[in-house]
Amino acid sequence: MSTLNKDAGTPVISIDPLDLGPYWIQRMPSPNRFVLDVDSNSPAQGTAVIGYTLNASPSVNQQWVFDPAPPELPDLAPDLRTPI
């Protein structure tokens, strides 16, 4: 089997359906926004998502924010309008 056809394997943690209510997650369009994280990189169920200001030198894990969900995209979705 080539690496292109390799089985993805078992996920490290299970991911239950996520209800964000009237919000969705999208990539940050500007450095003036807050970023999302979880305390101490915890995968535990019920761990709070925290927001804080972007570091002066943003890292790759500081590119996603909660935004109000537009009516046409009420579910969790990436913002495909912003190039990654």
What does this structure look like?
- The protein has 84 residues and is mainly β.
- It has a domain at 28-70.
- 0% of the residues lie in helices and 24% in strands.
- It contains no helices and four strands.
- It has a two-stranded antiparallel ribbon. It has a two-stranded antiparallel ribbon with strand order 2-3.
- The two termini are 30 Å apart.
Quick structural summary:
The protein has 84 residues and is mainly β. It starts with 22 loop residues before the first strand and ends in a 16-residue tail after the last strand.
Terminal residue distance: 30 Å
Biggest sheet record: 2 strands, antiparallel
Structural class: mainly beta
How do the helices and strands follow one another from N- to C-terminus?
Answer: EEEE
Helix content: under 10%
Low-confidence stretches: 74-79
Q: How many strand segments?
A: 4
Shape: flat
Number of helices: 0
**Alpha-carbon Rg, integer:** 15 Å
Mean pLDDT: 60
Order of strands, widest sheet:
1-4
* Relative strand content: 15-25%
